[in-house]
Each structure stands twice: as C-alpha cells, then as structure tokens.
Write a structure and sequence with these properties.
The protein has helices at about 65-75, 105-110, 120-130, 140-150, 165-180, 205-210, 215-220, 235-240, 265-280, 330-335, 350-365, 370-385, 410-420, 445-464; strands at about 10-15, 20-25, 30, 40, 85-90, 90-95, 100-105, 160, 195, 230, 250-255, 255, 265, 285, 310-315, 325-330, 395-400, 400-405, 425, 425-430, 435. The protein is of the alpha+beta class and about 475 residues long. The protein has a seven-stranded mixed beta sheet, sandwiched between helices. Strands 1-4-3-2 form a four-stranded antiparallel beta sheet, with no helix packed on it. A hairpin with a 4-residue loop joins β20 and β21. The radius of gyration is 23 Å and the shape is globular.
C-alpha cells in the first residue's frame, strides 16, 4: 500500500498482528489495537542501522525478560507501561523488538531537542573527554558559563544549581525561609509559612511534597512539613486574604500547571500574587520546571503575563535529558544566603552544564521559539478539527507545545490504545486529561500523525 509523504495512511482490518512491528529495512509498520483490530501504516523515514541496538548485549532478550528482571531487583515505585525502550532518534523511540513509537512525552517534557540531537551529543562527548565531575569544592568553567547565560536571558541576578526539579523547589523553600530570617535582624519571629494551590505539583521530597496539593502523594508520608496553605488556583480574593505579613514566607505557583491538567493562570491572578507578596514582604516563586525554557513558545512562561517572580525553579528540559535543576533569584534573595546554607555534591557538574549550554544555544536561536508557538497553535487547531466532535472531549487547551485534552472519562484507555498504535502520550489532572508535551523540534507532519492516531483511538472510549 502507498502513503503520502510523512503522513500515516492507515486502514483497519479484522486480522491480528504484532503491536506496531517496525521493519527498519522497509520502513513498514504494523500496529494493533487492544481489541485486535489492526492498523497498517507506513512512514517515510530513514533510520541508520546504528540506531538499533540488540538488547542481548546487556544480558537480556525480549521485553518480557527485561520486565521480569526489573520486578525482581527494583523497588516497585513506578507503574510502568509494558514496553522496554532501547533507542531513539529525533521524535521517534524504538523498543527492544524494534517497534517504533512517535514520542509526544519527551521523557515528561525533558527532551526538548528530541533524542540524539547531534550538537547535544557532540557537547556531551567533548566534555566527557575533558572533565566530568569535580564537586562544588572547586570552580569549573561550564558551570559559570551556564549561570551567566541564565542571568543574561532572565530576570535573575544569581543562580543555584541542583539535580532535579524537586531539589530546586526544596532549595527555594530553604532560601525563602532564610530570606525571611535575614529580613528580621531585630529578633522578631520571621515568617515561615507557605502558600500553594490546588492541582499543583512541586515534587516528592518532604518539603516539595508538602507544597504539592494531591493528597495521595502526601498522605503515606505524613506528617510532612507543616505551615502550608492550599488555595484555589486562580482565586484572587482568597490569595489576597491569605498572604500576610509576618506569616507568609513565600507563595509557590506554576504559571501553567502540567501535572495538574495543563491549566493556565491569568495575568490578573499572577499580578495579584505579585502585589500581595510585595505588600506582605513575602517572596513570589514561579515553578517553571515543566512549563519553562521554550515549552510555551516563550523562553519563560511568565513572560506571557509580564509578571516576574523573586525566585524561579527550573529543571526538566535544561540539560536535554541529563539531570539538572536550577533556582534563579534576584540579588535581594541571594544576599540572604551564606556559605554552607545549602549545597549539592553533583549539582552543576561540568558535563551537565555543558549539555545545558548546548540546549540553550538552540532554544535561544532566532526563530526557534516562534516555531514552537506556530506548531503549538497548529496542533491545537488540528486537534479541535479532528477530536472536537467527539462526545468525550470537553476541551483542548494549552500554550505552545504543552497541550491538554480534557475528557469526561478516564484517559488511561486512550493512552493505552495510542501506545499500541505507536504513539506515546501522558495523562494529567485527575487522570482525565491527555497531556501532550512533544520534543520542541517536532514537525507539523509528525503532529498530524499523532493527532490522526488520537482520533482513531478515541472510538475505543465508547467500547470501554
């Protein structure tokens, strides 16, 4: 069968088959839904043989063997999906059997440049041959260079590096507490409490967990850090009343909630938080771990609103797949921090910072962010066109390439069906939102492929 350039041209038959079996020689794909209907498709792709690595070299055979081994040696903290990924290139991933998947998860909004970006690979390889790790006992050039770049392209005056988003938020908690103590030299009791919002997610360490609203994350580990008040996201009046001088150390808010269901703040809401924090002497912290660094089509999500924080936390896409977090802050906040107040052995290593510099180089190139905005708008319009008539679709929302599709039922059956059809997507919200956070380099053709698979798989929601 033939197919148009770069697009899925599929048909449904009643015969069985393997779930999206990929033949790297012919470029032919076979996909299969859970209900045994088969979709046959072809893509115009060129994959070098080196993309595929035989898993037997690692001591494993097929996926089932890997999954069985994992169950016997790792702590069961992850409800993994039943595929074992082995390699990737661009926006495509391949499992150990050679099946191909269009990746619209980006490792949960991490792989902004996709998989195996050559400039990123070159930067990491070059730095690995020079210097990988020295600890923060010593200075290193890539760390200073990255800090300078982040200062130059943001509101911030100072940077602190960590290893993840939750660590960045943990550091921000400590810095906010220290700032309040520093601001009360006369011995008065400093403000120590925090405000966060419904449907937020700030991490899983004990401090960041205390700021995370979903009770099922917190309840197994209580008591967590006390002194956190959760307010309704977007409720201006409630925030004005709750933010109080001598009580509120900081307000943590995501300009766009990712885990919470791709919910965007309004300018009025964020400005009201800025004004209330200024009046109360509290710090305003923007968590841009998921929505920052180009995901919205702006370098920083808060630029959309023209409201600026005292502290901003970053992580996911910053080093293109290597572990990094960052806390950006004003000089006012940084002046309260002294030697020994916080630290990390691995944070800001030469290797990771060099990788992050290569990511910044690409994302800040003229035209890159505009292309993200253009593709995001195209995807939203295409999704509305393809999915808008389905009775289960309540809303398609988002900015840039962070898109949510809200359903009136659980999104899990749709996610499973899409995976079996070669498309990787995520859930969000209360499990009823499909979250699309593809690599920022994704093409419009690939977006059409993803939307086409979503459209076909939506029919399965009725059957479930």
């Amino acid at each position: 069968m033939s197919c148009s350039h770069g697009l899925v041209n599929s048909y449904i038959s009643s015969t069985g088959g393997f779930p999206r079996l990929f033949n790297p020689r012919t470029g032919r794909l076979l996909v299969r839904f859970d209900n045994s209907r088969r979709v046959s498709a072809c893509l115009n792709i060129n994959v070098e043989a080196s993309t595929f690595t035989n898993s037997t070299k690692f001591g494993f055979g097929e996926s089932k063997e890997v999954m069985a081994s994992e169950a016997s040696v790792l702590v069961g903290t992850y409800a993994r999906v039943p595929i074992v990924l082995l390699s990737g290139k661009g926006c495509k991933l391949y499992d150990v059997e050679g099946r191909e998947y269009l990746d619209m998860t980006s490792g949960i909004a991490v792989n902004a440049l996709g998989h195996g970006d050559q400039d990123w690979v070159n930067a990491v390889t070059e730095q690995a041959n020079i210097l990988t790790h020295v600890s923060n006992v010593f200075y290193s050039v890539p760390q200073v260079e990255l800090a300078k770049r982040l200062v130059e392209c943001s509101f911030a005056d100072r940077i602190f590096f960590s290893n993840s988003g939750t660590e960045a938020n943990e550091a921000a908690i400590k810095f906010a507490r220290k700032f309040q103590r520093f601001s009360q030299p006369d011995g008065k009791q400093p403000a120590t409490e925090f405000i966060s919002f419904t449907n937020c997610f700030h991490g899983r360490t004990m401090g960041a967990l205390a700021l995370t609203s979903k009770e099922h994350y917190r309840s197994p580990f209580e008591p967590v850090m006390p002194g956190v008040t959760f307010l309704e996201y977007g409720n201006i009046q409630a925030a004005k009343e709750a933010i109080q001088r001598g009580k509120t150390a900081a307000v943590f808010v995501e300009p766009i909630q990712g885990e919470g269901g791709i919910c965007s703040a309004t300018k009025e809401f964020l400005q009201s938080l800025r004004d209330a924090c200024d009046d109360a002497g509290a710090l305003l912290v923007f968590d841009e771990v998921q929505c920052g660094l180009g995901r919205t089509g702006y370098l920083w999500a808060h630029e959309i609103y023209g409201v600026f924080p005292d502290i901003m936390t970053l992580a996911k896409p910053l080093a293109g797949g290597l572990p990094i977090g960052a806390v950006l802050m004003t000089e006012k906040v940084a002046s309260a921090i002294n030697y020994g107040d916080h630290g990390s052995t691995f944070a800001g290593s030469p290797l990771v910072c060099k990788a992050a510099l290569s990511v910044l180089d690409k994302i800040t190139k003229p035209g890159f962010l505009a292309s993200v905005s253009k593709k995001g708008q195209y995807l939203k319009e295409f999704l509305v066109q393809k999915l808008g008539g389905n009775k289960h679709v309540k809303e398609v929302r988002g900015i840039g390439l962070i898109i949510g599709i809200e359903l009136d039922v659980s999104a899990s059956p749709l996610v499973d069906a899409c995976r079996n059809s070669g498309l990787l997507i995520l859930t969000a919200g209360k499990g009823n939102v499909v979250r699309l956070v593809p690599p920022l380099i994704i093409s419009e053709q690939e977006l059409e492929v993803g939307a086409d698979i979503l459209s076909k798989c939506l029919a399965l929601l009725d059957e479930n």
